[in-house]
């Protein structure tokens, strides 16, 4: 590879691609579940791909990790017990543990190799892995959630790969039923929900499956994410019992930890959906 090499992920559904100028391949491992590759880029730091799909870059992962965690943690009245399904790069775990009220955060990724690669090439994402409140497991999140004690969790964050391969079962009714059972009455489920620009049908289908599982309030929050297809991504929150998504705005504005993207104002702004998204999701 020369310094002029470009690394692309082609995204067929949109007929587009994401590309980085890379200087060398740093590592590659074929785990029992997927192929993990790490490249060094000229402008985006290190880049992790799983089965050819961009997962994390040093430069822009904060957008995703902060939006997957803080909106839910500042919406729940007092989150103490948090579970992350997937999330093996440990960036979401780090953000969750910034909340001092969190007593226990489990990260359950199916693939230990993702975490080992993150420790080596994205050490800043793993800086909270030794926090005594963190429990890092390597197991299938579908099975883990099935066996979780009913009514034991405040927040479940599904930080998964796309709905193919081992992550396919993290997007359907049966998995969401397990989440519904494991969550307390005021609990919140968060799922990464792909691109609102080209995968709106997937978001609609996901919300429908969550609804069949018993959830009755949904909130999709879009945010920029240059390393994912179309550069525009989203997470979807779900709750039970008719509870809405009013967030602890004063607490978010007075938070004692630093963030790079998330703020109380960004949280508020993210709740305003563009008309074409609101129409498709039947939301205001
Ligand atoms: N943010 C990325 C995105 O949206 O493209 C995904 C991050 S990556 C850390 C997602 C993780 O989900 C991977 O490490 C993968 O091993 C994990 N994963 C996929 N299927 C899983 C399952 N059934 N149980 C637990 N983890 C799973």
UniProtKB/TrEMBL annotation:
The residues annotated as the active site are: 159 (proton acceptor)
Q: Does the keyword Transferase apply?
A: yes
Q: What is its EC number?
A: 2.5.1.16
Query: Tell me, what's a Pfam family for it?
Result: Spermine_synth
Task: Provide the GO biological process annotations.
Answer: spermidine biosynthetic process
**Listed GO molecular functions?**
spermidine synthase activity
Q: Which reaction does it catalyse?
A: S-adenosyl 3-(methylsulfanyl)propylamine + putrescine = S-methyl-5'-thioadenosine + spermidine + H(+)
**Record keywords:** Polyamine biosynthesis, Spermidine biosynthesis, Transferase
Coiled-coil residue windows: none
Pathway where it operates: Amine and polyamine biosynthesis; spermidine biosynthesis; spermidine from putrescine: step 1/1
UniProt-annotated binding residues for spermidine? 65, 89, 159-162
Q: One GO CC term of this entry?
A: cytosol
Kindly give the InterPro entries that the UniProt entry links to this protein.
PABS, PABS_CS, SAM-dependent_MTases_sf, Spermi_synthase, Spermidine_synt_N, Spermidine_synt_N_sf
Domain PABS span(s) in chain numbering: 9-240
Query: Which positions in this protein are listed as binding S-methyl-5'-thioadenosine?
Result: 34, 109, 140-141, 166
Alphabetical list of HAMAP family matching this protein: Spermidine_synth (MF_00198)
State the protein's purpose: Catalyzes the irreversible transfer of a propylamine group from the amino donor S-adenosylmethioninamine (decarboxy-AdoMet) to putrescine (1,4-diaminobutane) to yield spermidine.
The record's note on quaternary structure and interaction partners says: Homodimer or homotetramer.
Family (UniProt): Belongs to the spermidine/spermine synthase family.
Protein's UniProt name: Polyamine aminopropyltransferase
Species of origin reads: Luteimonas yindakuii
The record lists the lineage as: Bacteria, Pseudomonadati, Pseudomonadota, Gammaproteobacteria, Lysobacterales
């Amino acid at each position: 590879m020369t310094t002029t090499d470009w690394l692309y992920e082609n995204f067929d559904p949109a007929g587009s691609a994401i590309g980085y100028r890379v200087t060398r391949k740093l590592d590659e491992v074929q785990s029992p579940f997927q192929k993990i590759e790490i490249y060094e880029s000229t402008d985006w730091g290190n880049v992790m791909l799983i089965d050819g799909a961009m997962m994390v870059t040093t430069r822009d992962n904060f957008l995703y990790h902060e939006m997957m965690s803080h909106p839910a943690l500042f919406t729940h009245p007092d989150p103490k017990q948090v579970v992350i399904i997937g999330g093996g790069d440990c960036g979401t775990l780090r953000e969750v543990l910034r909340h001092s009220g969190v007593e226990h955060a489990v990260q359950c990724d199916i693939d230990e190799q993702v975490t080992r690669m993150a420790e080596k090439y994205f050490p800043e994402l793993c800086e909270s892995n030794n926090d005594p409140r963190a429990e890092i497991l390597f197991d299938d999140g579908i099975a883990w959630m099935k066996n979780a004690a009913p009514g034991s969790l405040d927040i479940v964050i599904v930080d998964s790969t796309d709905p193919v391969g081992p992550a396919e079962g993290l997007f359907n009714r049966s998995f969401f039923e397990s989440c519904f059972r494991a969550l307390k009455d005021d609990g919140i489920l968060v799922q990464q929900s792909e691109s609102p620009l080209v995968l709106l049908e997937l978001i609609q289908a996901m919300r429908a499956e969550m609804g069949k599982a018993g959830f009755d309030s949904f909130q999709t929050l879009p945010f920029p994410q240059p390393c994912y297809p179309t550069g525009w991504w989203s997470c979807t929150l779900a709750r039970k019992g008719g509870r809405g998504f009013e967030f602890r705005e004063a607490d978010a504005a007075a938070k004692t930890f630093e963030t790079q993207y998330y703020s109380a104002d960004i949280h508020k702004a993210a709740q305003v959906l563009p008309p074409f998204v609101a129409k498709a999701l039947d939301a205001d």
